[in-house]
Amino acid sequence: MGKFITIGERIHCISPAIRAAMESKDPEPILKRAKEQLDAGAVYLDVNIGPAEKTGEDLMKWAVTLLQEHFDNVPLCLDTANKKAIAAGISVYNRAKGKPIVNSADAGDRISYLALAAENDAICISLCSKSGVPADNDERMAYCQEMLEYGTERGMEPEDLWFDPLCLVIKGMQDKQAEMLEFVRQLSDMGFNSVCGLSNVSNGMPKTVRPIMDSVMLAMAMQCGLTSAIVNPCDLRIMETVKSADIILNKTLYADSYLEL
Amino acid sequence: MPFKRTPQQFAASIKEVTIGTGDKAVTLGGENVFPLYSFDAPISNPPKVGVEFSDTGPDRSVPGIAAFYAGADSLGDVAKRACDMPGADFVSLVLESADPNGDDMPIEECVALCREVAEAVSLPLVIQGSKNVEKDAKLFEKVAEALQGKNVLLMSAREDNHKAIAVAAVMAYGQKIGAESSVDINLAKQLNVLVSQLGIGGENVVMNLGTAAAGYGFEYVASTMDRVRGAALAQNDNMLQMPAITPVAGDAWSVKESVAPEEDFPEWGPAEQRGVSMEISTAASVLAAGANAVILRHPDSVAAVSKLVSELM
Measured between CB atoms, does B12 come within 8 Å of chain A? Predict the structure, then answer.
């Protein structure tokens, strides 16, 4: 297993600046956010264009080309409910720095995103859920197996299904956290790649607390074998945690300046 | 079940560094397989062998070396002769006299010697310093300036003087540098990080990871080199993907096994043969651990190691 893979989450249409930029196809705000995240050490960038039912194909092509042209074919994670838009984005995607990631499939209504990934030789984030939050790890594992079967039947390599155990908010679901970590361990023991949307865990906590909670959760999940996460790379504490954990887990060789790399 | 061989090629590769100019320029690195594993993928630039001599001339106390350089009196003549040694890919001048704790030769005189050698050689030139951090920083700056256009490799930039040497040698005068650490993987990486933070790309940097004669702590050298190459290829660590060069001769010719006279140890046989054996066995070992170039003194060692390399490729 290689170094931990961070997927920068900050190109997201929920942000007013990004939404406006996507509507008017204004490159500057998007490039600025991309650069900030890459400078901070993000490996992949998530590109969330929202549902984009009408303009999605055109918009995703534009965004993929824009980002890859400006940032040396940066690998991207294509994030929208519009499957045609994902396919359109992949049609102009350059794989020099890594396969595209489809974000995301689940074992329910969204299972066909795996077919989309299979057709396009892409990685697929695969949420271990069907309708709502899984009750326990047996349920998570059942969904995981369903998706694995569905994907591999369509020609995907198991390593291209990045299973998401579903991080749950700590406030209100504190008793579920250890179980989620245990599931990451199970995925790792079976040799699967994994991913999680980290910031969920600290939802509703004060701003001063969130980076601490997110970083500690990330470190604990990495120890359990988590291989990637969707994070805010501009959060210094998170990136310091990832880099330090990669050193402790011997994924990369230590040097005094390791935090600057 | 029949055995199916899977070539172990990596997506990462060692960077290429070229020293010298014209037809005789040599390129180190470029491979995407473990050292000497040419059965996994072709190694486009096989390891290179360099011939070392001091600024005081070759070590004429060793009969085979004395015989090879017979009649070559000036340093320029020595340099020219070294280029004709069968198996030599490059030559290496050691500025031994520059050492402030020794002859403390002034920098201008050292530069003049370097000029004389650079004019005389037909092969690429690698210059080793005085081993004094302060002196080398000043010395290499002047040498880099004087030899502009020759594309020489200046060993050694260390943690305490890398900035001065790297800026002068690479950025101002377009030479190559050797980043020297002494058998310390973390420092080896750190030094490359510091050099890269100056804006210097890996195509200008060769690593000297430190050495020891076989039997004198060599296992630390071997494991360091192994680990560095493993990180470079298997972990795609671009801060360790520089090619490695190992000056073998200095250690090999100074240990007891190489210098003790035969009359003291008659059962050991002729001293010269022991020195050659030490030089060859150390060189072969560092090549197996990942060196892209070795620097040797004795004509017999140069011939044997270059034959070893060519027969393995």
Answer: no
Q: What is the pLDDT of residues A26-74, one digit of tens each?
A: 999 999 999 999 999 999 999 999 988 889 999 999 999 999 999 999 9
CA distances from residue A260 to A10, B101, B154, B190, B269 in whole angstroms, order as listed: 21, 38, 27, 11, 54
- Distance (Å, whole) CA B95 – CA B88: 20
B229 at A interface, C-beta within 8 A: no
Measured CA to CA, the distance from residue B52 to residue B68 in angstroms comes to 13
Sheet holding A161-164, edge to edge: A193-194, A161-164, A123-127, A101-106, A76-79, A44-48, A5-12, A228-231
Q: Give the pLDDT confidence score for residue A35 in this predicted structure.
A: 98
CB atoms within 10 A of CB B200: 20
How far apart CA A221 and CA A193 sit, in angstroms, is: 13
pLDDT in tens, B219-245: 999 999 999 999 999 999 999 999 999
CA distance B71 to B174: 35
Distance from CA of B237 to the nearest CA of A (A): 7
Chain B residues touching A252 at Cβ < 8 A: 231, 235, 237
Helix (H) or strand (E) holding A10: strand A5-12
- Structural domain of A131: 5-260
Fold assignment, B17-312: TIM Barrel (3.20.20)
Contact B194 A2 (CB under 8 A): no
Q: How many domains does the structure of chain A reveal?
A: 1
> Where do runs of H (alpha helix) occur along chain B?
63-68, 75-83, 107-120, 133-146, 162-166, 185-197, 218-234, 249-252, 256-259, 271-289, 299-312
**Chain A interface residues facing chain B, Cβ-Cβ under 8 Å?**
2-3, 251-257, 260-261
Residue A86's identity, in one-letter code, is I
Q: What is the pLDDT of residues A165-210, one digit of tens each?
A: 999 999 999 999 999 999 999 999 999 999 999 888 999 999 999 9
Q: Which two tokens stand for residue A247?
A: 């050193």
- Hunting for tokens 């297993």 — which residue is that? A1
Q: How many helices (H) and strands (E) does chain A have?
A: 9, 8
pLDDT at A91 over 80: yes
pLDDT tens figures, B31-68: 999 999 999 999 999 999 999 999 999 999 999 999 99
Q: Which candidate from B227, B236, B239 shows the least CB-CB separation from A255?
A: B239
The angle at the Cα of A201, spanning A4 to A13, to the nearest 5 degrees, equals: 80
- Show the DSSP H helices in chain A as ranges: 16-24, 27-39, 56-70, 83-91, 112-119, 137-153, 177-189, 210-223, 236-248
* ipTM metric: 0.84
Question: In the A/B pair of chains, how many CB contacts fall below 8 A?
Answer: 35
- Report the pLDDT averaged over residues A100-129: 97
What CATH number did the domain enclosing A98 receive? 3.20.20.20
Q: Is the model's pLDDT at A1 over the cut of 80?
A: no
| Close Cβ partners of A156 (under 8 Å, ≥ 6 residues apart) | A114, A117, A118, A124
Query: A97 vs chain B: nearest CA distance in angstroms?
Result: 11
Kindly give, in sequence order, each residue whose CB lies less than 8 Å from that of residue A19, ignoring residues fewer than 6 positions away. Answer: A13, A50
